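User: Sequence in, structure out. Go.
Assistant: Echoing your sequence, followed by the structure tokens.
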Amino acid sequence: MAAIKVWVLFMALMCFGVGNGEGDAATSGDQDLLRLGAPNYGDALAKAILFFEGQRSGRLPANQRVTWRGDSALTDGQPENVNLTGGYYDAGDNVKFGFPMAFSVTLLSWSAIEYRDAVTAAGQLQYLRSAIQWGADFLLRARTSPTTLYTQVGDGNADHQCWERPEDMDTPRTLYKITASSPGSEASGEASAALAAAYLVFRDDRDKTFATQLLGASRSLFDFANNYRGSFQSSCPFYCSYSGYQDELLWASAWLFKATRDSKYLDFLQNNQGSTGPTNEFNWDNKNAGAQMLATQEYLGGRTALVNYKRSLDSFVCAVMPNSGNVQIRTTPGGLLFTRDSVNLQYTTTATLLLSIYSKTLKSSGSGGVQCSAATFTPDQISSFAASQVNYILGQNPMGMSYMVGYSSKFPRRIHHRGSSIPSIKVLPRKLTCNEGYSSWYPTSDPNPNIHVGAIVGGPDGNDQFSDNRADSSHSEPATYINAAFVGACAAAMGQQQQLEESVEDVLSMVSSF
């Protein structure tokens, strides 16, 4: 009888997708989920969202939870009589870069849309909405006319020569903008996408004022990007685009069609699908795979004219899934997707988010899997591999280290982050100068005095090694767009684990009845 019960349990778990890999295509994600030491996804999700409060610029609200931070940059925009306060510092510096900030808002909103139930179950929806609104509010302020968008606040070169808290910041708050005569379709297109995605988060609120502002500004920004085409690379000082602007136009039109169902945005997607193709990465510069994901959701919903987007998205999956026969992005010996040895986790988290959403979409549409040259991947296999990437980041790796600050007992202590590495203004209230920061706080091997909970750093090298060195910014610096992608990926892994646990409980209940 005991043997029969074990056999029934095994077969039931196979039916639920546990260990259902086909040959070499099988991944370790299911085994990871079944380990007793599986990550606490709810805790990681909460901390990933909390990180954004530590990146806030401007006057902090009364309910600010990251208490080592204070008000900063309260006069941003004054030289041109505009209000550019608020928003986020993008990484470990004190500059506000609108292009990656908008991408972060888009990804946060996408996470809220796709994984609302999981985020709500974790008690984090209000905090995620707050993180989205803080960034979206800034983007609304940065658009001061139908053909003017401020894209940066702060002199990046001067800022990078200083090591000081944002509360002490005295470097030039130089303003950069795009206009009809000096366009940047990448920046305006991404801002359009961000506000359309945010609109979908807030559109069902009882008070429609904010949602109406978001959608109106998104439509206007798309028109600006499309009617005054020009590359941001020619006008930007930092975060220049190297993929061109066509991907942002597709990305924005896909979000606007999702938000409005206005046929003109669908027409744009259909008429311009020849401008996109297979890619092996998704990041703040290259949005092709993201646009392909949104268009594929429409294709699977019956809009068959968008088939080329699905073909390209399938190529993306084959490029990143191990043992596909078409691999372009290798994995480290420890199993981490490794695109390049510089802030690699930004590419890992974005790929993981896309794989998670695609798996969910394939499963809900009953569309089967993805055929690569050497393997066919089921939705469960894709989501399991995505979960393995989340697990790696949270500590299931050769270093036994979480790459999220404040998660578990072993995490980076010396992150490349000005505010984290200098005592809080509430602890050391005197002004600390640029040079004093570099001489007294930057070079020390002591742990950062402020634990920037939730910050995900650039990550290990290609051999799974990490030195926890403040000076090594390519591995030890966090960034908003790393965390923004991780939020959705983590919520997806949490939902997968919950589903698996419920399935196991059902099976155990069934077995106990024998």
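User: And one key feature?
Assistant: The longest strand covers residues 148-153.
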